[in-house]
């Protein structure tokens, strides 16, 4: 009987030691969990040029304030592109994307509570979903058989009237 208790104690001790070793490995030895890998991360040194290349768009010659970013996420890479242009040039640019429906008015969301995994604030811009005078639509290039954009699954479009005959275009694609 004494031998059985001793064996049980040794097995329990070995199991506890193994669990503690695994726990220390999972926490990097510091007691704090390791950073989760595979989560969304902004790509260093990638911006408007890469977004334009991925979406295969040609921005208007009147475009200014060009900004872009690339975010590698859990499953997809998301490309952000924004610029300001004359309203006419912005409309021509959007028409070339062939949205599935006409741009519709966007009801602004509360900027204090609205969150997104790919924030425009990364580019120093407000979230278009929270702004006034914004119209929105989406494009599914494979759905409309747009061969130019065969690698693009979806483009979300926002166009904001910023006054003085100018508009800010926001494109989010993956």
| Average residue-wise pLDDT | 84
Task: State the end-to-end CA separation.
Answer: 67 Å
- Contiguous runs where pLDDT drops below 50 for at least 5 residues: 7-36
Q: Major sheet: order of its strands? A: 1-2-3-7-6-5-4
Task: Categorize the overall geometry.
Answer: globular
Order of helices and strands: HEHEEHEEEE
- The Rg value, from CA coordinates, equals 25 Å
Roughly what percent helix? 25-40%
Q: From the structure provided, what is the oligomeric state, counting identical versus distinct chains?
A: single chain
Structure commentary:
The chain has 174 residues and is an alpha+beta fold. The chain is 25% helix and 29% strand. The protein has helices spanning 2-26, 48-55, 87-97, and strands at residues 41-47, 64-72, 77-86, 104-105, 134-139, 155-163, 166-173. It has a 7-stranded antiparallel β-sheet.
């Amino acid at each position: 009987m004494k031998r059985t208790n001793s064996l049980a104690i040794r097995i329990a001790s070995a199991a506890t030691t193994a669990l503690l070793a695994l726990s220390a490995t999972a926490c990097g030895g510091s007691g704090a969990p390791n950073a989760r890998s595979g989560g969304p991360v902004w790509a260093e040194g990638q911006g408007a040029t890469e977004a334009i290349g991925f979406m295969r768009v040609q921005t208007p010659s009147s475009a200014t304030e060009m900004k872009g970013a690339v975010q590698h996420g859990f499953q997809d890479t998301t490309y952000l592109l924004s610029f300001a242009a004359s309203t006419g040039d912005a409309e021509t640019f959007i028409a070339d994307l062939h949205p599935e429906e006409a741009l519709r008015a966007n009801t602004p969301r509360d900027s204090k509570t609205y969150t997104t995994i790919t924030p425009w604030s990364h580019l120093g811009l407000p979230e278009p979903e929270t702004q006034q005078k914004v119209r929105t639509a989406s494009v599914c290039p494979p759905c409309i058989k747009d061969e130019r954009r065969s690698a693009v699954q979806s483009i979300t479009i926002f166009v904001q009237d910023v006054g003085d005959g100018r508009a800010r275009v926001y494109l989010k694609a993956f």
